[in-house]
Protein 1
Amino acid sequence: MSDLISQNLNMIFKTPKGETVHALKDLNFTLKKGELLTVLGPSGCGKTTLLNITAGFIRPTSGNITLNNKEIDGPGVERGMVFQQGALFEWLTVAENVNFGLRMKKKDPIETQKKVDEWLEIVGLKGFGNTPTYQLSGGMQQRVALARCLINDPDLILMDEPLGALDALTREKMQSLVLKIWKETGKTIILITHSVEEALLLGERLYVMAPRPGRIHKEYNLPFASMGLKEDLREIKKNKEFSEKREEILEMIWNMEEEIMGKDN
Amino acid sequence: MLTQILTFLIFFAVVGCILYGRRLIRTEKVDAVFGNPERALGGTHWVIVGSSFLLLIWLYYSWDIAKGFYPKSANELCQVAKVNDSLLGLKYQFPIEEREFKSTSQIKKENKNLRIIQSEIQNSEELSSQQKTILTSYIRKTNQLIPLLTNEDLLENETKQKIDDITGKINLLTENFKKPDYPFETEQELNKRLEDVNKEGGWGITKVDAGSGSIENTLEVPLVPATYRGLKFHTAAQELNLISDEFFKLRNHNPQFKSKIKELKDEIKSYRKDLNDNEEVASTYAKNIIKIARRIEFASIYPPNALDKMQAAIIKFENAQIDAQGGLRLIDIFLFPAGTIVASGPSCSEQGSGRWLPKPSDTFNKFILMSKPSVGYKDIPLLWIQMVDVSKMIGFILPDWIADILPGEYPVHTKDGIVKQNFKGGVLKIVTGDFNLLKVPVPYGHIWDSFLRVFLGLVFGILIGVPLGLFMGLNRFAKGFFDPLIELYRPVPPLAWAPLIISVLGIDNTGKVFLLFMVSLSIMIISARAGASGTQLSKIHAAHSLGASKKQILRHVIFPNSLPEILTGIRVAVGMCWGTLVAAEFLAGTTGIGFVENVAKKYFQYEVIWITIFIMGMLGLLFDITLRKIIDKTIPWRGKG
């Protein structure tokens, strides 16, 4: 059982003004090994909070979340994280960034080097090992971030809007890469996104979250991710079912936003 | 010679570059848009023009161009100045450079003084009316002395004769001076003079005895006339000195004046003698009146037209000497800007910009001289290498208490008077450096001392400031605990600490290094703190989830992430330290560049002052360039992350 299980997860923040914000309320879900979950929702619905709790950066107010029957109580190597801006270490080269985790664990450098080369090839950065990261484009930086995370062989990969800052074309390529890696490694992945299309394309499962208090509003099981492994992503987007789902979710999020902002907007 | 070539080179460079620049402007005019920053790129030719102008201004205003093209001009102008100096006393008697006769202005002045005393006496409350009457009569009598001097009828024939004598001598000198072979120098005299000229050396630093180890025995302007024209003026000046002395010895005292002033003096003397102790005010006034009477007595006051002929003779000589100057006047006007050569008594000196702005050629010569380790400054070279025993260094580094804390006792001499060495004694020998080992070359000198102080202050500042700053950037306790301390001492200008620190820690290196340590410490703490607290949270999160421990995050994420701030801080600190050091060396010390400048200031060694300014500028630039190189090498990602 290497599942991610969340039981009655609650997260309450106190703002400096003294107001309490119910970021997450009674979150219950189970993610089986090898599943790809995308999380979608308007801003302020607690997506990132959920991710931070899962990563172990913050503790929930109540309830618990376990991975492989072990309670999460701090950051760990078994949960790798990919950030929106890459969060690469710009004083290191691509290869040094990728092997950062192994270096911290003081693994044998020769073995490490081999692994780094392997992963650089998988993410399509072969030959870029000695390039300084500040010379890379946004897409390449995200590839490095992916490789850096994957080289540690985590059970669960957490992605916080990893493709948010990329241009459309790069984004599409990266989406294929994520799917490819998911298939090849069979990792459990949680991916947070703002893009409905991305959530539909990549998510084997999809949670639409609602704000105030943050909760799972609706859950989908989708076929498009497994289709995406074989077909071109653009073909899937033309799929009728895909369009229907997209409209449905968009409508849902629109309604949520209107609820928050008021109808006038 | 070099100056001449340089002047021409600069001139052609300026002209050439301006022409090139103009052509470039004309061709670019079509496509260039105002405000486009590209237009500021390039332009080496304007750099040449700019630096050439700077050099040219230096050459011109330091009178190096005059020295280069007319090396004898200063010596000749010195002779002219001697004439002016000798003539000055006589000229001031007449309305030649002044507005009125010296006699007139003196009479005006003393009349005014008498009036002031008069009104003071009248208004005084401490004087009795009887005293007032007596003092007023003295004033009147003093006033009546003046007409005795200015009355032409009373002028004695003997005095008239002497005035005519002096006038005749001036006229004779003028006649002689106009003759082409005026000083009538014999061959023997010529040889003697040329020998003296040779011995004395030329203008500026042409002859310096480097062997003596001193750079102070240089003569600004040579005194002995080197040219024939100079000799004319030199001789005339000597003759004028005699004439002038004769005139000022002359006194226009006729018998009437003599008896009157004697009468007055005696009167006042007996009056003062009879006064009581409590009548001091009256005594003082009487004394002041007699002072004025004495001034009138010795003031060379003559009847209005008695000196007319003499005035004419002096003006005639003045014209003759100006004529004799010829081209020298033009050189003086155009090549000696903002000043000229001035004689006072037996010596000549540069007065004006040539004085405080040393000639490039002189400065260069002096720099070469000072760079010689045997000369240096104050017996210490600027920068040289000396052989130092390694044992001395070890003894300096290892603290002596290492031997003290060892078990056992130090050796005690036996009754035979023999000292047997033991282990503890042996260790003491090592920690005090009392042993022989190889010698190694170590730099020393003023520049090295200054450099070392900055370096040590900086290193200590970095070693303590960076860890502390990082700690403060990451820890609430550290920030709160150390912040008040740092914020209290940091805003104080470093030099304000200097007197305190120097008096506590001494004028040697310790005090200065500590002062610089204080300067760099606050800068390093603040920059390291800014670096640490500026680390993006996502990077730290990433490192955490990649399995890094706290220590590893500090070492591999926070420290490298703070490096840009830290290195920028070092750059700022170097500049601050350098500035503070020089000022601290001004205050106290026996070595260092600032010390050299301070001593040079005391002896008006302008060349040395400029050399130290130049050295400091170059070293500062060197530090900055080195750091910039280091920064570019170590943090190439700066501003690109």
Protein 2
Amino acid sequence: MTKSFKFTSILQNLLIILHGLCLVLVLGHERLEIPALLEFIGRTHPLILHFPIVLLLLLTLIFWNPKLSLLDNPQFSKSLFLVTLVLTGMTVLAGLLLAAEEGYVKEEFFLHQWTGVGLFWLATLWFVFWKKQKFSIARFFSTLTVILIIITGHLGASMTHGDDFLLAPFKKESRLKKVDLEEAVSFDHVIKPILEQKCISCHKASKQKGDLRLDGESFILTGGKNGPSIDFTNPELSTIIQRILLPIDDEEHMPPKGKTQLTSEENELIIAWINESAHFDKKLVNYPEDSEFFHLAKNIFVEDRMSNYQFPAAAASTIGKLNNDYRLIQAIYPSSPALRVAFFGRGNFNPKQIDELSDIKGQLVDLNLANMPLNDEDVRKLSQFSQLEKINLNGTGISGTYLDELKSLKQLKSLSLTGNPIDAKNLEKLGQLTQLEQLFIWETRLDPESISTLKTMLPETIIETGFEDKGQLYQLNPPIIQAKSGIFHDKIDVSIKHPIGSVSIFYTLDNTLPDSGNYVLYEKPITIDKNATLRVRAFAAGWLGSEENRSVFFKAGVKPSAYHLTFPPDNAYKGKGAETLFDLQKGDEDFASGKWLGFKDNDCEIIMEFNEAAPLESISLSFLSAEASYIFPPASVEIWGKTQESNWILLHAEKPEQPNQIRERKQLLLDYALDGTPYHQLKAIIKPINPLPKWHQGAGQRGWMFIDEVFIN
Amino acid sequence: MEKEQLEHSLGHNRRKFLSKVSLGIGSLALGSLLIPDLFKRGGGEDAIMAALPHFAPKAKRVIYLFQNGAPSQFESFDYKPMLNQHIGKELPESIRMGQRLTGMTAGQSSFPLVGSYFGFQQYGEARAWISDLFPHTARIVDDICIVKSMYTEAINHDPALTFFQSGAQVGNRPSMGAWLSYGLGSENNNLPAFCVLLSRGRGNGQGVYSKLWTNGFLDSVHQGVQFSASEDPVLYLKDPKGMRREDRRRMLDKISELNHLNYQAFGDPEITAKIQQYEMAFRMQTAVPEVTDISKEPDSIIKMYGPDCLIPGTYAANCLLARKLSESGVRFVQLYHQGWDQHDNLPTEMAKQAKDVDQASAALIQDLKQRGLLDETLVIWGGEFGRTNYCQGKIQVDNYGRDHHPRSFSIWMAGGGVKPGIVYGETDEFGYNIVENPVHVHDFHATILHLMGIDHERLTYKHLGRRFRLTDVHGHVVKDILV
């Protein structure tokens, strides 16, 4: 007794919990996403639903049959009732979980869900009133329960098996035979199947919503209560097009909300068909080449090879096991059994890794071994992968000895052999691969003659030979001058590099352009020990000589013990005053960098003193010219010298050549010999240009003079 | 982050809840009423990811040759002889239709039309017009699809560039490469799925910044990795001198243990991202030198790409590197070439710019083609908007400039499922407005995702309470240009 009491009390508690859970799911299912475990429970719905149906019907039978009284053994009856109700509850719960999964049209399960839940509630009430011995009320609920079992069961079955599952064998099926593209007709094979699936259930002889029938050409042309369905003068105004393009929430949208909707492809097909005059019996192949309808429709008839693989898929665990950081195995797209494999990381490659793929030899369609170090023997391993369509063997180093073994791969369409030393004696073997659609043989050591032989052996194959060096001359790029600094004390080693190792580098140090008649061949780093302009160019057979690169080197052998400027530079470009001229830092072409001194209103007068009367060889001044920025070479330069005993003597006076147009920015170095005289003092007087020449946009104004460094040797 | 932390802590509770259900306690009902997200799995991302790609992809990888600064369509692919005939004449207001102007020409009192300084010829089966500045591109015209009807909404560089990269004008959304990395992952686990290469041209330049290759709100493993032109293509990748690889391995193992402990304590997904990135960096230490080594490329490669391809940091070198990265399974290689902003000195500057990119761009197509890779690699060439048909500043026969123009411009695409040898879209005879087949930036993104096997409406990420897409709420696949 206690034992059975415990059993029924557990069942009763379970029943309450089930009611609670069902209530939650019914009220909140829109906000729920179901974890996988519960998805599993949901999917038991079709399995367990048969128990409550049978048990409820059984209970009804016992309940209504006066000869069999449920009261004969109340404890047993109560248990039977409770088991039935718990199973009903579990079925409902599972059903609600299943419904929360994606893929169910809301309206379809809506009724089924509510009748199911209602059934659970009514059956519970039936039990409650039976227990309270109020039999007339119990009978009422029992009747409702049975009615709901039938309705719910039918609705559920329609969802699982389709609308007309039971009656289908009695209906005449107008199932279309599949036709080829050549025979397909615009309406019968393209538009009609869409209408039949999505429209005709409401627009046919027996059910003419909006007085419209879509089950025949004449009905379509006649249209419904809103007039003809198709407007031949303004196709885009056709009722059909307008209705299908309305937002789904619009009352007028077709198919109505809740019914299966047209896919975007179907929409496009219908629109294109109407736009192109809605022909009913035009063959697809008679549409013009640029017809949109034709292009959309032909996809229906062209079998998509990729979606039609007949072989079985490999086990996910097999694929997972074979995948690693250096070997990728994946389906060509989800749900396809076809696999592609790519190897990465030359250093980690071992030919054994190809053998390991034998578990998926029936699924492998695309194999990428590019740049993996292969031996010719390894190619033989590929013939086991019978489904292969595409093989990439670029840069693997094979010579092609066993390529003929690939001829057993009937599906092979594309083979890439670029960058391999394919031996001309293996041409015959390559020529046996007549199944190929594409063959890539760039950089394979096959000479033009072999290639044309190959083309006759493989007439159906597109052979891609790639870039050909047709002797067109391209220009080399200039060499790169590598040196630590443009200014040095005693001497400097300069190296010159070019990214192409095989070029010849020509250079000069006398400020002339290197060319075939005037050059020094660069062999090892050059040592420069005096002011020099290094100009370099690269030359190579089969190339045009490069443009030049140049670099100016300055020797600063003697630094004055004292120096100053008589007049300050312009306030905007004053640098560190005279210090800037002797800091061994060349300015670049940015004159505002602080490494340049700018003069416009003042002359630049530099006084330099030397403690030890050493013989001086030369003085060099470094200027900038940037005419677009009003910066010109100096108008005049005077160099004065003074020994211990003499007065100031004018040593040099020069008016540097002035440009007559705007040039690119460049630096200008002026050298003056001092002939080894031990000067005590030197003075340089440099005047900026004034006024600017007539051709310049600032004609008449004062120009600028920029100086960055003075070198004395 | 807050969302992830909450979910992490709920993860424990969920387990407790479930164990209690089995004991017959009805608190689940109450619990699920109080916490509606209890049944949710991590934002729904697992389901989104499980369905990717959505269909058979045409392209496996993308190389995007971004011409930063906006090259003029009138000196490249949009031939408008009318502009040469009416040079100096005023742009009719009926054509301009109130198009807003940039601050640079808003003050200009007149808008004199100006035609191309460079000649045009027709090439290929499509008889496409291509300017004399792009002889190499003309050579591959039968392999590319020129789209002359691109348009955008932005009229300044930064928003326009950001729009092209991320589908929004304001930065903070993931870049296209990051979306593809998120959606499709890497083919090669030893290299980042999204690599970025920069080069600087000789024309007036505009900046590029790392926000253009950001992962945005996506996991940071998806951000673009910039390869630099220095001797270390990927900075800080090399081990310090004297460190053995085994030592590095042991160090990483220990760090990983500590990080796992931290993850269990805090649940911050950035910690797992960090662990993954350390591991990838370790593998990259061998993979990167293998890919970036160009010393073994044959002479014919140098002739194809031009000798600049051997100088790191040039556009040509980046094109060659892009091919090598792509060939090694990098999902998205993004190049930026600066210097296309010709507000003045257009003829001189554009000639230099074209010379720098033309040969290498064409060589990349040719190179992919001769390796059998072009049909699985999508290559895109183009800038962030177009340029005006009228002159900015003083107009001279051999010197003029063009301002920014969003309403129409030209790009080209090749390979990866794009119809070769066609010209798509048309502009009016002034080259100002599109008259046929407009392609918006969102459509462009939708099309690229489509080619990669992704339905742009279904690649989403939930962030700040809404689901984001690369195409936001717009975009149509341009089916006409698909094979």
Protein 3
Amino acid sequence: MYLPMSWLKEMVDLEGIDAQTIEDSLFSCGLEVEERKPVAPDVDGIKVGVIKEITPHPDSDHMVICIVDCGEYGTDIQIVTGAPNVNVGDHVPVALPGANVYARKKGDDSGAHEVMNIKKGKLRGVESNGMLCSGEELGIDDDWYDGAEVYGIMMLGEDALPGMDVKEYLELDDEVMDISVTANLPHCQYVYGVARELAALLNRKLNAPDFTYTAKKEANNNNITVEVKAPDLCPRYVAHFVKDVKIERSPVWMRRRLKMCGINSISTFVDITNYVLVEMGQPMHAFDMANVAGEKIVVRRAENGEKIVTLDEKEFTLNSENLVICDGEKAVALAGIMGGLNSEIKDTTKDVLFESAKFERGNIRRSSRALGQSSDSSHRFEKGVDEYTTGLAMDRALHLVEELGCGTVSATHVDADANPERESQKVVTTFSAVNAVLGIEVPTETIVDILSRQNYTLEIDGDNLTAVAPAYRTDIEGTAADLAEDVIKVYGYDNIVPKFMTNAVITSGGLNKKQKAVNKFKDCLVAQGFNELINYSFYSPAELDLLRLPEDAPERNYVKISNPLSENYSIMRSMLAPSVVKIVSHNMKRGNESARVFELANVFIPNEQPVATIPTENQRFAFGIYGEDEDFFTAKGVLDAIAQEFGVKFSYEKETKPFLHPGVSACVKCGGKKLGWLGQLSYEVSDDAEITKKCYFGEIDYDALMKLAEESCKYAPVSSFRSVKRDLALVADEATTCGEIETVIRDACKAVTDIKLFDIYRSEAIGEGKKSMAFAITFAAGNAELMPEDCDKYVTKILKALEYKIGIKLR
Amino acid sequence: MENRIRELKAQIEDEAAKIASLDELKEVRFKYLSKNGAIPALMKQLGSLSKEERPAAGKVINEFKVWATELFDENEKDLANKALLKRYEDEAIDVTMPSKTRKAGHLHPVTLVRNELIDAFTGMGFTVFEGPEIDDDFHNFTALNVSADHPARDKQDTFYINDDLLLRTHTSTGQIRALETMEPPFKIISPGRVFRCDDDGTHAPMFHQMEGLVIDKNLSLCDLQGLLDTLAKTVFDKNTKTRFRPSFFPFTEPSVEVDVTCCECHGAGCNLCKGTGWIEILGGGVVNRKVIENCGLDADVYSGLAFGTGLDRIAMLKYGVNNIHLLYDGDVRISDQFRK
């Protein structure tokens, strides 16, 4: 919100307090001054001058030479001007050498301005010691000063004495604070509210606005009625009838204040509603009574399909979620958001009906968002308006009508209040409870003083404290903490003394086993050169299409977001791989020659469709690798390293997925349970994902893996004797896999500790459809040296098993 | 005999000087010292000498043999040494050639910050409590005293699954879930992913927070500042100071924003802190009674402190990352830079 310093100073006695102190005080109670902006930041050095003498310019027929009296700055200053409207005796703004004014940007037709520094100079050979200024050069228009937009030099009043600072004369020496207010303080969202807060903080006198007016009884009293059919959405509606209005320009003080708050002056009645909005925080509306049929106001939910055209000539089709203000026949305003075009104030308006109402913030917000229509009023209602101020604001508006002399305030006043007996929030507590929240001892008399200054009504009985909050406070919930907050903001947060939970019980902290395992898992990957990814938890269903997942794939059973930012982020991830594929593609496109990336994150599995209960979150691990040194087996190595770290053994079976190379893909099993998959991305998917190199991906169910992981590990003695290695070259059918042979070998001989395939050889001599596979087999020694004869026995056993079980012979 | 020895000696000296390899040396040694070599042959000739001459001649031959053996040994040592030097020379490399290494991997910067904070808090007696990412209205809003008409509940700001289920907008849900399941007194932190309908230059629709909650008896604002002061000193450095200023969260009262002295300029004022010397990194407060009551505890007995911080924001401050989207980019050249 914008807050002109002069306005604040009118409401609070701020004598002797500088702007920085004001800013700091406001900050301490949650009102952050984001900016303090001078009204005329660039203009300075302009003094009042009186023209004493005008002579023609010898070399120009459109310029004249003026002798100007600027009081203490010189009584005979010669200034040349080309303006057509100067006369002897005029009081004018004079920019003396060194002054800054605005000038149209040269060569820019948009009317943009730049700052110009005034220097002594010669105009067609005649010395000129400054410049007489127009309103534009001072950066002001007719709203700020009548006559500012005249063609030529701006004329000042006779009360502008020679040598006076023009900025001071025109009240341009003001500044405007831009304040941000936290959501719990709607009572500080307006000028009077901030002034009230500041007066309490600084313990200074508050000069409240004048709320008085004299209602004139008329002979033929109007019989206006207000019927609120939706009191839940409109708990208070105050209407007041104003007769014989004059729709004209508002006085300069009001125009200036509105301008400083970023509002353009329109005419008396519109300006009064805007002024009250800024000053009292209460949005008001003025209806042209000529357009209010049946002398009747009805506040109701709109009918489905009902239409209204708002002041800005936009048409809206409404439904029962929207609140409308109607007369006897039709909707005349979209409640709290904008008036209807059919009842707006016109130059010809004779009688006005003022509205000051409280509309529920939630409803205004929903309507405003749903219709895409907002206004200063709707923004204000969204922040919250209190019913107490609703009444006060009407009084203020009527006072302003009288002060401006722009209408006759009638006695026709209707107050439709759903809860006229409304009571202020009461806090029943103790002084010690208030101090307990703070952790320090604020003296009782200080607490009493601070709360009284904030308009609490207090009842004190020893330690017992009953505090009734002022009517405008809607943030009070009735607890000691409410008072503690109001005390400490004035007493000062600096008084809080850091204590390290001296009253708290010692608790044993730390990670649990599951959390430690996550760290270990990630460390294991980082040690293998992996970079960790964090991807968004949502993506597009198109990601699943890219992987060519069939309609009945389990991953197609996903959780849908009902209001996604876009289709791209519309479903919760049902698998991680698509995100990792994207990252791999991104790295390749950026020219990175290799990458190892992984993500450990949740996928979301619906318990039912449509989703009704909190979906199951399943932690998954997915990785992607590519680069010169990577192949299927380095990918498999990643998983085996993890298996080893967690004391389990993975087995791999050939199995493919719609997005993997059919010949280079496998499922990953552990303890007989399928944990996931790995493989090379298929060429079709690679093409679609703009992946140009072979790359390998895998995804496994992390939670399932952790259930299988060993609980603890125990030391097993190692033999002090050497193990022995034997090489076997075996001839097998092409279809026989390494895994099958390994299983047979292991099953045949318990002494085998390691089997490594180190060569595959094919030749005519071996035969069509056959291959020779060379294995290095390691036998472990027990508690004695392993003898050649023992190894021979093992080998014989192994060969027998190979031949018998899968028909494989030694080459 | 003596002539013959002189002759052989000259011959051996001559040949030894020409030996260039251990193999040649072996040959020469064999020629003179093997069983049938020239020197043992001299021994055989002793028989042709008189009995009186034999001892002296034998001694001379023996001395000659020792001389030759020593000469060859010397030679061998010399040659072995030369061969070793040559091997070293042959195997010499250009040490400035590229190294062979498996490049190290790196954790995500948010994980690094998360781990650091967890480390600091677990040391203070906190446990880590992780709640679900998809939660319901009750845990995300109602129980946290967020009123029914609070703007945060807008579809504009929160991702919904249906009317009740939503993507949690803050890790404050962890407060409620901990209060429901844990026996007081306890201290927890609840880190994790959170979601808001915002995607522009400075916002990502997903980011990370860490909520903290202490439930015990007689906790006050002083305890909160003490706790957060310790934390700031751990995460940044020991000279870091904290400052409270009033704020508003529906679930705490009083609520405070916590500023710490700028980690870049240490309070002098710089671009990072927009000249104020302070940066805002935390929010917190004394837990609102209603929250404690909403979770079925006696608010006259138990009090609480709650606080929350953005992990992405701390990561960005710590590593000098100026755009949150870079944290989710995935380019390994970016992630390789986050080492600690």
